[in-house]
Design a protein that fits this description.
The structure is a single chain. This protein is of the alpha/beta class. It has a single domain, classed as Rossmann fold. The protein has helices at about 25-35, 50-60, 75-90, 115-130, 130-135, 155-160, 170-190, 215-230, 235-245, 270-285; strands at about 15-20, 40-45, 65-70, 95, 140-145, 195-200, 255, 260. Strands 3-2-1-4-5-6-7-8 form an eight-stranded mixed sheet, with helices on both faces. α7 crosses α10. The longest helix has 22 residues, at about 170-190. The relative contact order is 0.16. The chain binds NADP nicotinamide-adenine-dinucleotide phosphate (NAP). NADP nicotinamide-adenine-dinucleotide phosphate (NAP) binds near residues 23, 47, 71, 73 and 101.
Length: about 290
């Protein structure tokens, strides 16, 4: 799981990176950092103004960027984003499934799914499966952005995707646990195609729009406590982590945070749960 490779995946031609949620926060910082390193970056977001501003920033610095507009909260929206990327990118070196977050209110998507699950788990699944051919063409990497999921965290598929699934920080952690599980399952499934998968916890970075839908108290005291106990990172530090895990330096279904590849939480390593999760996700989009 934590082996290093000495075989370069990339050629001398321009590398392509797809970054979801690149219209603000960590995704935007990562997109700018990747463009500065010569990647052509596809900026995926739902906000035209913020998206165009990100593209202009990158182009203004001499980089290459294009905007792919779409709402990843619905199955149709995620599929439309994937179709547009397939049209303009025959080869993808890096897919960063970064769009995500926590929600304070229980609301359903047009597909009847709880929003935390739709955005943090189902959308990455749809994009990865749809883009596997261009990823394989480049022997690419998929980075799924998670959070600091405790080793003993547990979930069921019903708890995140069933009728009683709810919003909140507990739901956020359960959904990121599911995304960690999916990352390992995708590594098992697609490593023979030369595609590698890593889950990244980017650190605690106050000042993004993360949690802006959550009830005030957590969002107000969370960053203060994080700063007091000295566990915050800057946007630049987070962007460097994205570039690092997107490179050849780490491979293979790992869970990367605090500068190291670490074992994923126990449940994420359970092949039976992973198979059940993948089958449930595939059933939702069939
Ligand atoms: N900040 C932290 O401390 C922290 C810590 C651990 C993990 N993370 C994870 O890091 C990732 C980025 O978080 P962030 O802090 O940068 O938050 P953010 O500022 O809220 O950025 C989230 C991005 O996702 C996009 N997005 C949200 N809903 C979308 C949708 N339905 N369709 C398409 N795009 C959508 C947003 O686009 P709009 O511009 O349209 O809103 C925005 O660009 C998330 O997965 C989060 O869970 C963050």
């Amino acid at each position: 799981m934590t082996t290093k490779t000495s075989t370069p995946r990339t050629s001398t031609t321009t590398r392509t990176a797809v970054v979801t949620g690149a219209t603000s926060g960590l995704g935007q910082a990562a997109a700018i950092a990747l463009a500065a390193r010569g990647y052509r970056v596809l900026i995926v977001g739902r906000d035209q103004v913020r998206g165009q501003a990100t593209v202009s920033t990158i182009r203004g610095a001499g980089g290459q960027a294009e905007l792919v507009l779409g709402d990843l909260m619905t199955i149709a929206g995620a599929e439309a984003v994937a179709a547009e990327i397939l049209r303009i990118a025959p080869s993808i070196d890096l897919l960063i499934n970064n769009a995500g977050g926590a929600f304070g209110r229980d609301e359903r998507t047009d597909d009847g799914l709880e929003r935390t699950f739709a955005l943090n788990v189902l959308a990455p699944f749809i994009l990865t499966e749809a883009l596997i051919e261009p990823l394989a063409a480049a022997r690419g990497r998929v980075v799924n952005v998670v959070t600091a999921v405790p080793n003993g965290a547990k979930t069921t598929i019903d708890a995140i995707a069933g009728e009683k699934a709810s919003a909140g920080m507990g739901s956020y952690v359960r959904n990121k646990l599911a995304l960690l599980t999916l990352t390992i399952e995708e590594q098992r499934r697609f490593e023979a195609r030369g595609v590698s998968f890593v889950s990244l916890h980017p650190g605690v970075i106050p000042g993004t729009r993360f949690g802006s839908d959550s009830p005030g108290i957590f969002m107000k005291i969370g960053p203060v406590i994080a700063r007091l106990i000295g566990i915050t990172s800057t946007l630049d530090e987070a962007a460097e982590r994205f570039v690092h895990v997107g490179s050849d330096e780490v491979v293979g279904g790992g869970f990367y945070y605090e500068g190291k590849l670490r074992p994923a939480p126990r449940q994420a390593q359970d092949p039976a749960f992973a198979a059940e999760l993948r089958s449930a996700l595939a059933g939702m989009v069939a």
